[in-house]
Write a sequence for this structure.
């Protein structure tokens, strides 16, 4: 291992330009990937914020009894899809209407609005089918006059989310594939530059594993450095966008670590493929 | 120790390189491979250090058989033999000492054993004063000595030399050849391919002459037959 680390470091020292080129390539490939991931992350967060507002509102009949309402709240609160049920009295409904539609304040002045049960759903249960299913169950209570959940709006939100997810996966995979191909090519150049060394190593009896090790370490270091550089660039881009255009959210520590890990994996895999191919050329 | 049994070697583009070659090399022997360019000398040497495998037939080297040999077994075999080439094949960006130490390093020799061994090898090939020089600072003869020191690093039972004096002047040729004889005298077998007929004639050692992929003359066979011919 000692020799493998030393050889890996010598690799950097002997070919500084090629090493810098590999790291920069890894960095820019991951930067492109990172930028896209950042866009995807922010779209997802925005959609999630919008999505969390999906709620079912069951309007209650004027003569609904308090005990029946309380029992129904207990029932509905027990549904696995439901996060929370809130009872809004007719007075509170009026207050809310006045607050939300200030310019029509006069209309509500002496008016009456029905009380309601406002039902919030859990994460993962806000798709149109589930929302409709819960709404239909709520509708079965005798004192429920009407149930509203903005069916069309939920449908639209979901198709946007699906399109965004599909585009995210396809473009993300494309960027990752490009990154791996480009990185593989630069590492292959580094391996070919040292083909003489590899053939001499084979000649004096080094095993394949031994020959590969320094290249894998080199690939790992390049990957991590490239990943760190990409992370820095993405952070810079995100800060600039936040300052001049629109507030964006940056990756949390876990995602940032995954980025570095991704760089390392790409570096190691790229090296393993390139050096493996080179080694297998000779007996 | 080395045995070729009905070995054929064919290349997809150039055709037959070896055509039914059989011979053996015993422990501690010195054997010249002679013959015109393209006769098959290098193919024989490559088959000895398993750089290539026969198309048909079998090669045994120190108990390792070519048929079904694994890459791992090839690595282990190469630790028991040394190879030198006409073009030396040294690492240009490493000193003489580092080039020799490299061979020991890559097979996992403990670090504390490397330096004394390298010093001893460089003394043996007469280059102890040039240990910190780079290959480009040395003459051809000296570079070949470094290559020989590297080949001897693992205490091989055989040294395989492909035209080791091909790029050297007369004086350097004599020096390198004497070094190979000294190594052989110490017990290491040597198989050397050469074009240098003068060298072969002067040495009075076993000669295998190769022509068109076949062994056309083996001095050891001749010697064995000679007593039978005398009345």
């Amino acid at each position: 291992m000692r020799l493998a680390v030393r050889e890996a470091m010598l690799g950097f020292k002997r070919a500084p330009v090629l090493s810098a080129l590999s790291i920069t390539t890894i960095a820019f490939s991951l930067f492109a990937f990172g930028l896209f991931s950042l866009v995807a992350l922010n779209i997802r967060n925005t959609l999630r914020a919008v999505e969390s507002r999906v709620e079912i509102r069951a309007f209650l009949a004027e003569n609904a009894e308090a005990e029946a309402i309380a029992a129904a709240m207990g029932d509905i609160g027990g549904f696995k899809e439901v996060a929370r049920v809130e009872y809004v009295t007719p007075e509170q409904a009026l207050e809310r209407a006045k607050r939300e539609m200030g310019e029509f304040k006069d209309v509500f002045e002496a008016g009456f609005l029905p009380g309601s049960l406002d039902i919030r759903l859990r994460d993962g249960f806000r798709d149109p089918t589930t929302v409709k299913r819960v709404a239909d169950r709520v509708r079965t209570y005798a004192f429920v006059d009407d149930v509203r959940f903005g069916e069309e709006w939920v449908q639209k939100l979901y198709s946007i989310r699906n399109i965004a997810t599909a585009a995210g996966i396809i473009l993300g995979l494309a960027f990752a594939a490009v990154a791996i191909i480009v990185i593989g090519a630069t590492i292959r150049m580094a391996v070919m530059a040292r083909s003489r060394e590899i053939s001499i190593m084979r000649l004096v009896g080094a095993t394949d594993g031994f020959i590969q090790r320094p290249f894998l370490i080199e690939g790992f270091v390049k990957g991590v450095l490239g990943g760190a550089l990409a992370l820095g660039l993405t952070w810079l881009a995100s800060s600039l966008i936040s300052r001049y255009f629109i507030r964006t959210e940056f990756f949390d520590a876990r995602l940032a670590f995954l980025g570095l890990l991704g760089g390392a994996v790409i570096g190691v895999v790229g090296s393993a493929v390139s050096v493996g191919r080179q080694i297998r050329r000779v007996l | 120790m080395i045995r070729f049994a009905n070995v054929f070697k064919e290349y997809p583009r150039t055709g037959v390189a070896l055509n039914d070659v059989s011979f053996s090399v015993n422990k501690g022997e010195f054997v010249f491979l002679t013959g015109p360019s393209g006769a098959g000398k290098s193919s024989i040497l490559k088959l000895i250090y398993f750089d290539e495998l026969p198309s048909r037939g079998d090669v045994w080297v120190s108990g390792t058989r070519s048929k079904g040999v694994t890459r791992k077994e090839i690595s282990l075999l190469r630790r028991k033999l040394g190879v030198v080439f006409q073009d030396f094949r040294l690492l240009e960006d490493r000193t003489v000492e580092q080039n020799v130490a490299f061979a020991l390093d890559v097979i996992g020799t403990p670090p504390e054993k490397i330096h004394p061994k390298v010093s001893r090898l460089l003394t043996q090939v007469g280059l102890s004063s040039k240990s910190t020089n780079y290959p480009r600072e040395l003459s051809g003869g000296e570079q070949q000595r470094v290559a020989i020191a590297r080949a001897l690093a693992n205490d091989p039972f055989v040294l395989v030399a492909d035209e080791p004096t091909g790029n050297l002047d007369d004086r350097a040729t004599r020096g390198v050849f004497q070094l190979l004889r000294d190594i052989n005298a110490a017990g290491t077998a040597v198989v050397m391919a050469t074009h240098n007929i003068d060298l072969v004639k002067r040495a009075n050692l076993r000669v295998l002459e190769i022509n068109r992929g076949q062994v056309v003359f083996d001095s050891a066979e001749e010697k064995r037959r000679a007593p039978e011919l005398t009345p």
Summary: Chain B has a mean pLDDT of 92.
